[in-house]
């Protein structure tokens, strides 16, 4: 599961839920791609770019960066 935030209001039929803008939720990446495709196929004329954005990728990048900083610090202390 990945964490997302709704950009616009949309209905998840399988989820039986309406997602409001700014609402955070978890779903599989595969399901998020299905929703994005369905929106583009059915509502592309409204020029909706994305209905949700993934928000846990940034946290993973921050964690990787922090880990690298700690490794470098450990290397410097070992010298």
Notes on the protein architecture:
This protein has 79 residues and is an alpha+beta fold. Helix content is 48%, strand content 23%. It contains two helices and five strands, in the order E-E-E-E-H-E-H. The chain has helices spanning 29-43, 56-78; strands spanning 2-6, 10-12, 17-19, 24-27, 52-54. A three-stranded antiparallel beta sheet has the order 4-1-5. A two-stranded antiparallel sheet has the order 2-3. A hairpin with a 4-residue loop joins strand 2 (10-12) and strand 3 (17-19). The radius of gyration is 18 Å and the shape is globular. The chain starts with a strand and ends with a helix.
Quick summary:
By secondary structure, the protein is an alpha+beta fold. Helix content is 48%, strand content 23%.
Please write out the topology.
Layout: E1 2-6, E2 10-12, E3 17-19, E4 24-27, H1 29-43, E5 52-54, H2 56-78
Antiparallel strand pairs: 1-4, 1-5, 2-3
């Amino acid at each position: 599961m990945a964490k997302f935030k709704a950009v616009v209001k949309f209905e998840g039929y399988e989820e039986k839920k309406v997602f409001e803008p700014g609402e955070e939720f978890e779903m599989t990446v595969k399901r998020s791609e299905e929703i994005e495709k369905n929106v583009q196929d059915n509502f592309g004329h409204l020029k909706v770019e994305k209905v949700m954005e993934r928000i846990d990728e940034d946290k993973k990048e921050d964690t990787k960066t922090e880990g690298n900083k700690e490794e470098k610090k450990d290397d410097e202390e070992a010298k």
